């Protein structure tokens, strides 16, 4: 039987049309059933306008929408019939195999954890960001779900992202690095130093501390950090890439010769943009939950949505959660032995 | 009398020749006395080779060099006659007004704090990174001196960087933002939330939380973060800018037409590179010490060194430290009232 993916068709900054278009593309390209969750009238009208809508696309009505700026916790408490909540409710009931959402990411996270719960052994589910690099993709975890973490959490992020990388990218022994401010193990803040000790004792292919400049070189497959640092990195990268292209554009616009040159080199710019486009993986998988979910960028294009649907189906088909639980179980003795992992006072111990 | 700047002429990845060239350029362009600290024979030979060495350049012998990868604390304990230690010793004795170093940055920091001490009211000196943006420069503090911080420290980084921004860039009320993962004050980790409350009560032109994507837009003059986050951002930015140019270069190299286009647009690329070049400010000022110091990138070019010497002299001439102490004094009541600032247990309070 074909896998069945639910799409929160109301979220995102570009409106439902873009999301529905992505779903239609996915239905044509992949062997999948799709449920679009949202206002049935609105979504039906969009589907009718699109050329040859697939018979494998189903509409599921949800009367409410969570705004992009709404408080996640208020939203999941008060809007029980929102498209996000409905999508995860369907997942919980086993009617769909995964959820894709470009809506309020905090609410998506909260709804997933509330309705699906955590996988065995998982202390904190987290969001895995996938970055393009000069070589292959690098998975950075956590990129925003957990802003205050302990070493146990960072360690588990590394294990979960490694499992994801194995299953999705076919890497046997993904190289796991700990994001820090120097390559030596002694460098970093208290959290990183404690996490480093834990990774060193693990059976992961741990390559030690890595620095921000290594992120885009492609010499590491999994980068571990807390959700505050990861989210700052994610947004800084977006901002810098935009600023670089903006400044370059301004300089090119200053002379006719340069503009002509740009036109000639245009194909190279287009391939470059495609290469660094986050849309290739569509979004960031939420790992550690009893289910499968992809959190997409609010500005996701139809292509990004299509790709997120593909990645979600690959996560289900390749049983990424089984691999996560297996790899976490393997490391349970290590985690249980170390009582200090959950001990109170981390920062306060070292700051005079 | 002309100001007198000491240059650690042995540090950096490019060797003394590059550093000495920068000093010679500075001596020609600015009304300054310069002391080059390091191996007298080696530096003398380099100076002799350079065209028309200035009579305002003095050599001060130091028999030791701190390696780029040496442990800072070991280095300042064991290598009392290193070029870094000697430079700060001269500063302490009042023989020079500022120190510029492209050597081991940890050792530079440690030597500065050990020999010069902290300014009045300063809890933790920090490093202020200066980033180019689409508009003016943005000062980010701390970019690496303090990896584990409390809200008091972040608050003081904001005050010190604002004082620097006022004095160096002539901004009357620099806009101060707190680097976080959402623009609302309620977003961020425990440290950021506590710091936000403090900034809100201050007389600074505090614009609230800012995100990584705002860094390069130029809509904020001072960005506050702890030294771990700041250092990760610094290195990520470097890495991303290199990767972007690398990937773009690879795409351009693929076709003759694109290569031709690049040649035509070459001037635009050159102006762009100049615009984003960290060399414009030469390095990162160390703020909060009883003295003036600029920590330069290990890979600094002669131009970067020349510019760092200029910025160091401007810091002295414009009395940035007086402004720092004045602005900190103004906020002392705020800091003293709040007993929780230095209280133990921050992370542990909220993580179950």
From TrEMBL, chains A, B:
GO terms for biological process: fatty acid biosynthetic process; phospholipid biosynthetic process. Pathway: Lipid metabolism; phospholipid metabolism. Its EC number is 2.3.1.274. It is found in: Cytoplasm. GO terms for molecular function: phosphate:acyl-[acyl carrier protein] acyltransferase activity. Keywords: Acyltransferase, Cytoplasm, Lipid biosynthesis, Lipid metabolism, Phospholipid biosynthesis, Phospholipid metabolism, Transferase. One of its GO terms (cellular component) is cytoplasm. SUPFAM superfamilies: Isocitrate/Isopropylmalate dehydrogenase-like (SSF53659). InterPro entries: FA_synthesis, Phospholipid_synth_PlsX-like. It catalyses: a fatty acyl-[ACP] + phosphate = an acyl phosphate + holo-[ACP]. Homodimer. Probably interacts with PlsY. NCBIfam families: plsX. Belongs to the PlsX family. Catalyzes the reversible formation of acyl-phosphate (acyl-PO(4)) from acyl-[acyl-carrier-protein] (acyl-ACP). This enzyme utilizes acyl-ACP as fatty acyl donor, but not acyl-CoA. This is Phosphate acyltransferase. It comes from Thiovibrio frasassiensis. The gene is plsX.
